[in-house]
Amino acid sequence: MELLTQKREVFGRAVKPLRAQDMIPAELYGHGTENIHLSVTKKEFTRVLNEAGESTLVDLVVDGEKHPVLIHDVHYHPVTDEVLNIDFYQVRMDEEITTAVELTFVGEAEAVKNLGGILVKAVSELEVTALPANLPHDIKIDISKLANIGDTISVKDLVLPENVQIDADEDTVIATITEKLSEEEDKAQGEATDLSSIEAEAEKPADEKADSEEKPAA
C-alpha cells in the first residue's frame, strides 16, 4: 500500500494555508532517515488510514523513494476531530517492533442470543511484537464460543502465527458474559451508589462541610 507525499518548507502557523487546500502536515522519522517535513492530501491519507490502520506497513513515497513506515501517531482537533498532523515512523524490516493492534470482535455470542447475557468487551487492542512484515492488521476475536453466563475469552485463548508475540499476561480477560441485572438489582445498585455518596459527605470534617456549603457572595 503506497501513500504519496510532498516535502514542505513551511512550519508552525504557516501550515494553515496547507490545511485550507486539504493537505495535512506530517513528519517522517525513524531508522535510516533524518526527520523529513512532509504534507499529504487528506483524501489519500484517509483512504490509507482506513485500510492500514496503525499496525500495517505503508510504503511512504518521498521524491520517488519508498520508505516502509507505520502510521505512528495521528493528532486530531479536540472539537472538530479534523486531522491536524501525522507522524510516520520508518522501520527496519529485519528488526522486531512492538505496536498496538486493534481487536475485531466477530460472530454472535450464544449466551447473549439465548440467555439474555451481556457481552462485556474488556480490551479493545493488544500490544504485539513481530517483524514489520508479520504485523497483523487486526486480531479477530470469535465471540460465538461464549455460550454460558460467566464464559470468558482470555489472551491464552488466542491463536496467532508463531512469529507474532502478544505482550500481555495470558490471563488477561478480553471479553466475558455477565448476567443481566433484574429491575430490583439495578434499582438496589443505584440506591447503594446514592448512599455511598451521602456517607462520604457525612464523613467530611465539619470545616470542609462548611466550605462546600458556603455560597459565593452576590
TrEMBL record:
Keyword list, A-Z: Ribonucleoprotein, Ribosomal protein, RNA-binding, rRNA-binding
Residue span(s) of domain Large ribosomal subunit protein bL25 L25: 6-88
Cellular compartments per GO CC: cytosolic large ribosomal subunit
Occurrences of domain Large ribosomal subunit protein bL25 beta (ranges): 96-179
Domain of life: Bacteria
InterPro entries: Rbsml_bL25/Gln-tRNA_synth_N (IPR020056), Ribosomal_bL25/Gln-tRNA_synth (IPR011035), Ribosomal_bL25_b-dom (IPR020057), Ribosomal_bL25_C (IPR037121), Ribosomal_bL25_long (IPR001021), Ribosomal_L25_dom (IPR029751), Ribosomal_uL5_bac-type (IPR020930)
GO terms (BP aspect): translation
Region ranges (Disordered): 180-218
Coiled-coil residue spans: none
Molecular function (Gene Ontology), one example: structural constituent of ribosome
Biased composition (Basic and acidic residues): 201-218
Alphabetical list of NCBIfam families matching this protein: bL25_bact_ctc
HAMAP family, sorted: Ribosomal_bL25_CTC
Subunit structure: Part of the 50S ribosomal subunit; part of the 5S rRNA/L5/L18/L25 subcomplex. Contacts the 5S rRNA. Binds to the 5S rRNA independently of L5 and L18.
Role of this protein: This is one of the proteins that binds to the 5S RNA in the ribosome where it forms part of the central protuberance.
Protein name: Large ribosomal subunit protein bL25
Natural source organism: Candidatus Harrisonbacteria bacterium CG10_big_fil_rev_8_21_14_0_10_45_28
Gene this protein is translated from: rplY
